[in-house]
Structure formats: structure tokens, C-alpha cells
Amino acid sequence: MGDLHKHYQTFDHFLRKSKKEFENHIKNDMVIQGNIQDFNILKILGTGSFGKVVLCKHVAEGDKLYAMKIMEKINIIKNKQLLHTISEIRFLEAFKFPFIVGLMYFFKNNVYIFIVMPFIAGGEMFYHLRSMKKFEESLSKFYAAQVIMAFEYMHALGVVYRDLKPENILIDVDGYLKITDLGFCKKIDNTRTFTLCGTPEYLAPEIILSQGYNYSVDWWALGVLIYEMAAGFPPFYSKEHMKLYEKIVSGRFACPPHFTKPLKDLILNILQVDRTKRYGQLKGGSKDIKGHDWFRGTDWDGILSKRVKSPFEPTLDNVGDTKYFETYGDIVLRESINNEYADEFADFSVGKKGFM
């Protein structure tokens, strides 16, 4: 307990310092850096309704690789994602934490918005979880520790994440993780919010019941993630959303027989429908989770500084190996002589407007 107490002291000091830096930083306008001519696009890494993510190199930086998210302005407007997109860019740029993806460059042209981030070569946790069927508890614990500290960081800054799932966690070459997709982040400080957003299997009961919520939803999602990592499937599941939501609101689920007693106990204390009993929301806050028996012996400071060797490291042939990503065709970018939706995207560099 002595090491844990020392960790609390140093980490709490780090969080207080981070909050001051964050609050000062978001008062400033965001500077747009770069343009598409600065980059060579190599291949598509992923695609979806949001747009495409491509592997690219900065022309002036030699062989350094980046992941570039390319979103068409017209799709952002049609899907009513303007505020989410601005929010994602601002949080990517403002967060400074080892287990959260950061922004390297951001720019726009007449047709697209471009978000350039580090290339995380190990791909999504989702890929590895499906490949292994389930994670050993030691690996689940290693990943969970990083998510917990990332949430402590976000919550200390007054931000709720709201989109935890294996698809939004990337695994780096060293086996450590990076949380990505910050579009649902919201700065709430000490208030509540009512927006229905997130992935159905990971929604907390209070979101489904439109009760208004705060950081409680992230701790619930952590419980779902720990369960899914260790079991290979989520605690609540149904092909029909209404039946799924009924299961979540009831809070009834069963743990697989291979779960150890401490793991079962931790999950039961996090997946509490009653928020007054949910770990993460009690008087001890996140310390109730970090101090739980399941995390006994965890070197929190060692993980934070990446001194602890990961139980799993992706096998990569070279720095540009994309074996953990699907294969797609070539990318063709549309061009236009007109600056599309110029008024709607005029405020992308403005600080405070970028936080939902």
C-alpha cells in the first residue's frame, strides 16, 4: 500500500499541473499547420462513414509515418457532425498524455478536413482480441491500468470520454495502448450532460434512461471493457437494441467460470446500475478501482512511464508494416475550385468554440 499511496501523491500532483496547463491552453486559438502537398499518401488504413484514414509520410521528414484522417466537408455537414469534428480536433491537440492519441498536424482545403496523428502500427485492440479469442487476465489488467489513468487524466481536466470500446483503442509497437476517436469527448466540469451517444453494448444505464450523467458513464464502460477483454465477449448483448438496453438497465449478467474471484468482484462493483454504489463514483473515486485486490502488485508508476514490459507486443516486419490493418483500394481525392461550406468551417481555428 505504501507504493500505491506514493503513486497517488505523485499522480495527483501531475493531474493538478495538467489541469492548469489545459485550461490555459484552450483559451488560445488553434493554429492550422501544413497542407496536403506536404504529405505523400501511401495506402488506406481504414474507412467508414466519417471518411478515410490513410498511411502517409511528411515530405520534409524523411521516413516518419503518420496516420491521416481525411473527412469530406459535405459528409460532416450532412451527418450533422460539425461540432463533433471540431471537438475531436481540439481535444486531440490539447490532450498531452501517453495513452491518448495526439494531434501532429491539422489543415483543410476546399473539400476536406485533414487530421494528422502518429501511426500506431499495432492496429486496434479489437483485432487482437478477436485473434486471441480473449486476453489473459495479466494482459487485461495491463490494458485496464492504462485506460484508468487516461480516464483520471481526462476527468481531472473536466472532460468525459463517452466512447470506450476495443475498436477505439490502438496498440503501439511497444505493446502499450493509445485511446483514439475523441469526437464524443465533452468538457462538462461539475455539470451533467444528457446526450445519447456511444456504442450500444457500452452504454451506461443512466444514458439509456436519459437521467443526465457525468463521469460515471466512463467507469461503467471500463467495467464492460475489462469484462470483454477477459471473456472475449461483452457482458450485455442482443441483436435487438431494445432488448440490449433492457439487459443493461436491469444490470443482470453472468461472469464466465474462468474469471478469478478478484476479477468478478471488481466487475460487479463497477457494473452497478445504482451510481451511488458504483466504483469510480464513490468517495474514493478512481482509487477504489486502483486499490482493488485485482490490481494488487500493479506498478502504476512503472506503467505510466512505460518501464513495465507489455505482456504482448505486436510482431512487425518493419516500421511501415500494416499487417494489422485491412487492405483497401487506392484513394482518389476530389478537387473543387470553390471553398465548400466556407462559413460552417470558418471557426475551426477558434479555441472555445471547439469544445462541445
TrEMBL record:
Domain (Protein kinase): residue spans on this chain: 39-295
EC numbers on record: 2.7.11.11
Any one GO biological process: imaginal disc-derived wing morphogenesis
Species per Swiss-Prot/TrEMBL record: Acanthoscelides obtectus (Bean weevil)
Pfam families: Pkinase
Chain positions recorded as ATP binding sites: K69
SMART domains in alphabetical order: S_TK_X, S_TKc
Gene3D superfamilies: Phosphorylase Kinase, domain 1, Transferase(Phosphotransferase) domain 1
Entry's family note: Belongs to the protein kinase superfamily.
UniProt GO MF annotations: ATP binding; cAMP-dependent protein kinase activity
Record keywords: ATP-binding, Kinase, Nucleotide-binding, Serine/threonine-protein kinase, Transferase
Top-level EC class as recorded in UniProt: transferase
Upper taxonomic lineage: Eukaryota, Metazoa, Ecdysozoa, Arthropoda, Hexapoda
Protein name in UniProt: cAMP-dependent protein kinase
Annotated catalysed reactions: L-seryl-[protein] + ATP = O-phospho-L-seryl-[protein] + ADP + H(+); L-threonyl-[protein] + ATP = O-phospho-L-threonyl-[protein] + ADP + H(+)
Keyword Iron-sulfur carried by entry: no
